[in-house]
Fold this sequence. Notes:
Blueprint: E1 4-8, H1 21-34, E2 38-41, H2 53-67, E3 73-76, H3 82-91, H4 93-99, E4 102-106, H5 115-128, E5 133-137, H6 139-142, H7 148-157, E6 162-167, H8 172-182, E7 193-196, H9 202-207, E8 212-215, H10 222-230, H11 234-239, H12 241-247, H13 254-262, H14 279-294
Parallel strand pairs: 1-2, 1-8, 2-3, 3-4, 4-5, 5-6, 6-7, 7-8
Amino acid sequence: MIKGLGTALITPFTINGQVDYPALNRVLDRQLAGGVDYIVVLGTTGEAVTLTGEEHQKVRQHIVRYVNGRLPLVLGVGGNNTMAVVERLHELRDELRHDYAAILSVCPYYNKPSQEGLYQHFCRIAEASPVPVILYNVPGRTGINLLPETVIRIYEAHPDKIQGIKEASGNLEQIKHLINLINAEGNKREALHVISGDDGIAAEVMQAGGAGLISVASNAFPEDFRRIVHEQDTKLQARYATMVSLLFREGNPAGIKTVLAQEGLIENVLRLPLVPNSPAVQQEIEAERIRLRHTK
């Protein structure tokens, strides 16, 4: 069961734009030492859509070998072509069964399906996946909001496969409504978990009955975000409010890559169409990183 703090892992690149495996090891070491509960491999934060098929395979295999069972792994498998996602799941069937605790599947982006379309899309994915499925609702990126009632419909159609939802709508009332629907008297939805997809409201989601956080910030600050999740530490979360805002000021994962580069773990390289933070935002992040270090 996927609960607690999960890191949405970045993919480091060299100055020449190749996957940087030594840097990837350093980021993984930070997760292992920092006490995260699981790692999300090649999700949107990992710039997965910019990797070639060969690179995707090599990164997956490298992470599986390096982690070596020390943490559960969740693989990002999603898209806006349902049949292509289903085919991908069939191709990865043996690998998923052997190496991954679940998949994380983002809502279809750009084509903006109806709630019925979302329902049918995720039902097909649930039928095809050999491992549990975590839905991923992030309207700011996809242009469509997966409503709580649709989440319940999907779960009730496939209770053996739908394990939870990463909720990154930023709408705390919507998230609380979904948790209330899950916990409504007389139902049997105990296996459906709500995971915060926003670093800035993780403690509030936990207090409302959520099951954890899939975090961008924990790439760099795993110990503190573990405390925020496991202790529902709203004061510590508030201390990170400025940093979290800066991490997303010019898009993700530009902000977290700036932090990791400033700490000497990676090169500050992204793949187009993404680019590094502007010099002004890099300076703000550096100042805030120093402030956080001196206010612990």
